[in-house]
Amino acid sequence: MSFSMKFLVKPLVISYGNSITVHRQIHRWVAPTLKALNNRKREMGPQPINRRSDYLEWNYKAEIYSFGKRLGEDFKEDLLREAFTEKSFINLEAEKLMKVGVDPQLDMKDNANFSVEGEKFISQCVLKYLVSVLPSLPSEHIESIHNFLLSDEKLSTVSKNIGIDDLVLTAEYPLEQSTLSRSLKSVIHALVLSSGEERASKFVTDFIITQLCGEDITPLCTPENPIEKLKSTVGANIESRIIVESAKNTLLANYQVGIYQEKNLLGRGCGESPWIAEEMAALDALWRLWGITSNKKPFPIKSQKIVNSVNM
Amino acid sequence: MVFQTAALFIRSRGPDAFWRKRRIFKLSAHFTGRKRNCYSIAVRYVHRALAYATQSRKLKKEDMANLWTTRVAAGCEEHGLPYPLFKDGLEKSNILLNRKVLADLAIWEPYSFKALTQIAWTKLREEDDPELNEVQETPPSNVITRGLLDK
Amino acid sequence: MSALGRVRQWNAFSQVWHLFDAKWQNPFQSAAVITKYLMGKHKPFYHPFANCGDVVVVINSRHIALLGDEWKKRVYFHHTGYPGGASWTLAWELHEKSPTMILEKAVYSSMKGNLQRRHTMKRLIIYPDDIIPEDIHTNISSQIKQLRKVPKVLESDEVNNFPRIFKLPVDYVPS
């Protein structure tokens, strides 16, 4: 329902002697009409969402061209087209042709291969980056941060925000997260083929690794049994001491526990019971060792050194 | 024969009441009871709500300022310096932070805030402020100014 | 919320139990200080809607000190609600009846009269002497500084043994 207010409002001129007052009012028919339209709309129930390409003025070629230009990258058009084509879309097209009795000889390729290659490339870049900025973090936690960055959830967010969701050729709509992330991986592989790995690795740094900014990575770096882990890391001669305790006999009891080794404070934690506090203290000690405490400097994104080290 | 002209003329007079009422109902949408959907009741409550809103635009600012004062006072009294002296010391050291920023620092940057109290305290001591004599806490010894705090 | 965030929140909003010794303290000035702790106004993240107040345990409320002749002049008013139900009690009378009530009323009236006040008052525990039940005692982890020093009271033999310049005769009557 897209009325322009111009047509709904009628000017009413009243003249009193020499002065003329102009009133504007809305036509009598507008309110009942809008009500009737609304009622009809409600009776019709929820309507399917149109994708952008369903509209008449959609120009896929121009959109594909401007996608690259928006991001400041030079893609080869055929590679980008392949990256955006899903298997389900080719099947759908073939079905349509079969229906009208034409032999479905489509020369389109889907992005299954591209996405596998792209994922390998992203994974490589992310791992290299993480190892270079978090040198003391054990490999299993590097792995979990890596998996977090390469999860469909994160990749689909990136994919959506750079406008891939309008360009993907697929049967389903709205798009699923897996489709979005697959397309992003394929686009990155298309970039590798178009502009080279150096350029593509910068793209990964700019769009995927930046997802770490402001993210609390401590839940990703939490071992099963922190106290055992700390013992295996620094030695078994650690001891825990209650530093602060308050309101012991109440529901709101609070304890702070410090973990010491040879009278040096390794970490301190707090919690509602001494055991939880001790576990948190062990985690704190581990995070300090691994350099991921909450007062850590932000991840270096712009640093030339890091970019060079990520280059392949 | 029925003459409808006069009746239709009266009916089509003036602006449509629907839009005038809708303006009020939009503002009463979050009310409960009859003051939400009955126009003559709704309009009274909407006018009252708007009057309250006008007053509260000013009150909100005052409330926030009072809250910041309480928070900053709590922050600097943690380190042993009363609030009036703290403000005085900051102003004399040409640290022109307002209460909002100071309150934020007190909550989220406690160590920066502690440093501010220490600077203010040192400045007052250098000026031999007589009010400092009533402060019983030990003054900070870790601030070296070399006269740099002088304006 | 991550595990760290959860315990950090718990730690920030934990209730600390403070001890306040009311011996020889002015109850009305002490009330202002106690109120500050009860309402959480000593914390930089204070907010009137947040439950951030602490618990205060007051001991020795029997030994509070009122200024001048306030014991005789201060009057507490009470009305039962029935006609002729008004009563006026002097401070010393009230203190004899209940040694904690003067302090409690002082704290109560030092707070703004809102819905929060009675809930805040529940965090105030007053004992007339310095005997605290064991389960309360274990909760206490902090102490509020007294507003003034407790003056030294000389024992009777200390008074007798104090060096004197001269000794008054036994039958001396000051004129």
From TrEMBL, chain A:
Localization of this protein: Mitochondrion
Main subcellular location: mitochondrion
Alphabetic keyword roster: Mitochondrion, Ribonucleoprotein, Ribosomal protein, Transit peptide
Transmembrane region(s): none
Cellular component GO terms held in the UniProt record: mitochondrion; ribonucleoprotein complex; ribosome
InterPro entries cross-referenced by the UniProt entry: Ribosomal_mL44_DSRM_metazoa, RM44_endonuclase, RNase_III_dom, RNase_III_sf
One GO BP: RNA processing
GO MF annotation, one: ribonuclease III activity
Stretches assigned to the RNase III domain: 64-196
Family in the record: Belongs to the ribonuclease III family. Mitochondrion-specific ribosomal protein mL44 subfamily.
Record's protein name: Large ribosomal subunit protein mL44
Species this protein is from: Nezara viridula (Southern green stink bug)
UniProtKB/TrEMBL annotation, chain B:
Domain of life of the organism encoding this protein: Eukaryota
Pfam families: Ribosomal_L20
Keyword Phosphoprotein listed: no
The entry's keywords: Ribonucleoprotein, Ribosomal protein
SUPFAM superfamilies, per database record: Ribosomal protein L20
Listed GO biological process terms: translation
UniProt KW Ribonucleoprotein keyword: yes
Bias (Polar residues): 135-144
Gene3D superfamilies registered for this protein in UniProt: 6.10.160.10, Ribosomal protein L20
GO-annotated cellular components: ribonucleoprotein complex; ribosome
Spans annotated as Disordered: 129-151
Annotated GO MF terms: rRNA binding; structural constituent of ribosome
Family (UniProt): Belongs to the bacterial ribosomal protein bL20 family.
PANTHER family given in the database record: 39S RIBOSOMAL PROTEIN L20
Annotated protein name in UniProt: Large ribosomal subunit protein bL20m
Native organism: Nezara viridula (Southern green stink bug)
From TrEMBL, chain C:
Keyword Nucleus appears in the UniProt entry: no
Cross-referenced Pfam families: Ribosomal_L13
Family that this chain belongs to: Belongs to the universal ribosomal protein uL13 family.
HAMAP family: Ribosomal_uL13
Gene Ontology biological process terms, A to Z: negative regulation of translation; translation
Protein name, as recorded: 39S ribosomal protein L13, mitochondrial
GO CC list: mitochondrial large ribosomal subunit
Lineage of source species: Eukaryota, Metazoa, Ecdysozoa, Arthropoda, Hexapoda
Alphabetized UniProt keyword annotations: Ribonucleoprotein, Ribosomal protein
Superkingdom, taxonomy of origin: Eukaryota
Classification via Gene3D superfamilies: Ribosomal protein L13 (3.90.1180.10)
Organism: Nezara viridula
Keyword Zinc-finger: no
